[in-house]
């Protein structure tokens, strides 16, 4: 079951109706039980009882780890924390990376092949990181969640279990202690949730799915004779937009569904392709993942290295190379592998790690700031290079794609050959490159760069947890504001209706595979 499946469009109103009946006086154990059961149904619908059982086993184990950590102190607590984190990492490694690791092992040994787990656990990367963060928080504050029901509701909560956002337990549980405001709050939450859901559905079904056709054809054409300079560039630009609208659409829908239940999730996406540096890009792309890796990988490494270098009296550049560059490369290498089991994902992470290191080195060396247009182009080129590794099935395919990006084989779209017949190179049509494909790329970037994002539109209604309006999300219509009026209701209805027009096939969000 996905947010855009027919089953979900029946499932959601039923659960919402039951939720509203059980929360007339506020959130109760019965209403939390309802969410836990609904989330279990959502997860097991397309992934089977076996997958749900494994998720529940992971949640029960970490619930127990949390109580154990909370009841311990000193060195014993630290040892239990380390052991529980290691257990989560091994769980993740077995179900996500076993085939990849076994393949490497078989390449360097003469041992006969053996089987690896065939089950795919939806959202394993997300709920595993959430549970690690929960254990770290318990270790810091010594206050584990005592209610098993509350903890299961937190881990299984269906608007976020499939592809995030990664929600810290303090952000989730803290919302249940707030005063219930009654029907006024319920009506506002429902209106905001529906608007976010409709805008997200439009991004996914109308924009991402249509733009993605050119990207899919381009990557499928790698190695074929008709793969050209134009098809490569249209392909990577299309994939950048496809992933952008797919993931941002999912994030809007996730926030929207949670908000319908009166629960605010943290912002996870904020117009990253408007950034003028790679640092700014990561402040807007997968924000909760960036927060987790910064808190739990980058900061601990950087702090320890900085302290050691200060004791030795290291110089500024030496300090930077050791205490900033190394933690950045390690963090993004882990981030790349977190996205998927493959060398191409490691290279995806390292491209960003190297780019961020260069970006920070430029500032450390006090070089002049680049003009925004140049900074934007460099950011976009770096992101697109990384996305080639992200999308290609393996490194060899990625290399072939890069060759296409610098190829002298220029192939023009249908209808343009009379205009460019005087230019050198082969003139004709290539699969996937047409005037429509180019038009979608142009339209996509106009939307990305000029229009306000949905969360900025709803900025007066706190669309996400602790939301702060960022001018980056405004576009050229900074004064435009969503409000619960008939006109905006019709706008949301039109977005949803137009989106459902394209819902003729099963659609899966790209980040579901992670």
Automatic annotation (TrEMBL):
Keyword Transferase: yes
Location(s), subcellular: Cell membrane
Main location: membrane
InterPro entries: Ac/AlaTfrase_AlgI/DltB, AlgI, MB_O-acyltransferase, MBOAT_fam
Topology within the bilayer: Multi-pass membrane protein
Any one Gene Ontology molecular-function term assigned to this protein's record: acyltransferase activity
Transmembrane segments annotated in the record for this chain: 27-45, 52-73, 85-106, 118-137, 149-169, 227-245, 319-339, 374-392, 438-458, 479-504
The keyword Transmembrane appears for this protein: yes
Pathway where it operates: Glycan biosynthesis; alginate biosynthesis
Keyword terms of this UniProt record: Acyltransferase, Alginate biosynthesis, Cell membrane, Membrane, Transferase, Transmembrane, Transmembrane helix
PANTHER family cross-referenced by the UniProt entry: ACYLTRANSFERASE (PTHR13285), TEICHOIC ACID D-ALANYLTRANSFERASE (PTHR13285:SF23)
Family: Belongs to the membrane-bound acyltransferase family.
Protein name listed in UniProt: Probable alginate O-acetylase AlgI
Organism: Chromobacterium phragmitis
Lineage: Bacteria, Pseudomonadati, Pseudomonadota, Betaproteobacteria, Neisseriales
